[in-house]
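Blackboard transcription, Thursday session:
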Amino acid sequence: MAENPPKGPDDPTGRRQRTKRLGDHLRRMYDSVASEGAPDDFLRLLNEADKKSAARAGGSASERKSTEDFINTLNEAQKSSKKD
Amino acid sequence: MTSDTTMDDDAFKAELVELIPHLRAFARSLCGNAAQADDLAQDAMLKAWKARASYEPGTNLKAWSFTILRNLFYSEKRRSWRSQPLDPEVAEATLVANDNPDAAIELLALRNALSKLPDDQREALILVGAGGLTYDEVAEICGCAIGTIKSRVSRARKTLLELVEESTSGFNSDPNIQASDTLEEIMAEAHALSGGDRGAG
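(Written on the board underneath:)
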């Protein structure tokens, strides 16, 4: 039940309800895409990039600009050696 | 792990995968067109992956990756995609997703109205209103003050409401929507608003 029936387009209650409905629609629009999950082509692309960076990390000096990157390099080398 | 200055690649990847649905949804709201939106979301995902060393663990990966997506969108002038007409595929999906016909028409009106909003207002409204981000996070993503985001969201809501009301009260740019449907929608909505009898539906 509506607390106060709206009297017209300028009625504050009606306006608030309409704003709320727009908000609901907005969320539904966003969720309709978000609820589709992660499509296969996204996962494939990310996996390819992961493999590529793991392979490159062994040879390229530019990949080791900092200590952080160097740690990454070690992690990646470890991971790729574990791969079957 | 949280004390580390870098994040394990696998952990980063897992978190990024979790965010793919959100990257797609945000991209769709910016581009309108489904295929181009996915293209943008994929680019953003790959860019985030490449830049993973610069991500600080424990901070907000969602806001961080949204910033990347947004920057890509604007730097590559993809905003021109926005001028494209409503994607029929999206429109159809929108209709199918709703068993309530007047809600579906309103949703179409909303899509049209959204495309007429200034870019900065649209993104602020979508991020806050649908993406579940805080004003603080959106301010970070858009690179401006919280007050600016608040005012953009408020202006966007006002404009959107006006535009939707305008289009559902007669004029509609979508030729697929018949005038009679629009009238029915107004009547149904007026009925629902005054009677509140739609609770069961």
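Lecturer's comment: DSSP finds three helices and no strands in chain A.
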